[in-house]
Task: structure prediction
Amino acid sequence: MAIRKEDVLSSVAQEVKAFCDEAEEAIDKKLKYFIDEGITVIYYSEIGLTSDLPGYSQIQKEIVRRYTDAGWSVAFNSDQRDGSWFTFK
Result:
C-alpha cells in the first residue's frame, strides 16, 4: 500500500513541533539578554537547524509565528558568508 500524503504531512508536522519546542529553550535563554542589546541574533547552528532537516521551511515559519505571537519582531536571514540566522527585535 502506498504511503498516504496525510500521514507524511502529519509526521512532518510532529517533527516540526518537536524541533521548535526544543529550539524554544535555547532561543529563550539567549533572549533574556535582549534588554542590554536591543536586538538579538540567533544563528541556525545554535539551535541545530540545517536545510536538510525534514520540514526546514515549516520550522522557520513556525519559530517566526511563535515569537511574533509573543510580541517579538522576528525575521530570518541568510547569506553565503555568515550562514543563516533569526533576528529578534
